Amino acid sequence: LGVSGDFLMEGRTDEAAKATFEDRELLMRFKEVERLNVTDKHLVKEFLDAFLTKKRLENMMGNSAA
Taking the alpha carbons of 23, 28, 29, 35 in that order, is the dihedral positive or negative? Predict the structure, then answer.
């Protein structure tokens, strides 16, 4: 079929996801995170979620003030 197992199982390929990741420095950091143990990966995800939630709230507050 000319598609990877990832595509058949998830509808996408990891290679396609990597190709669209423009910030190479950030990509390298995510690759480092992949090598962490499960507990540390979970902490990184929690920090990232908290930061993104904070940014969304700031954007909402900024948009409502305008």
Answer: positive
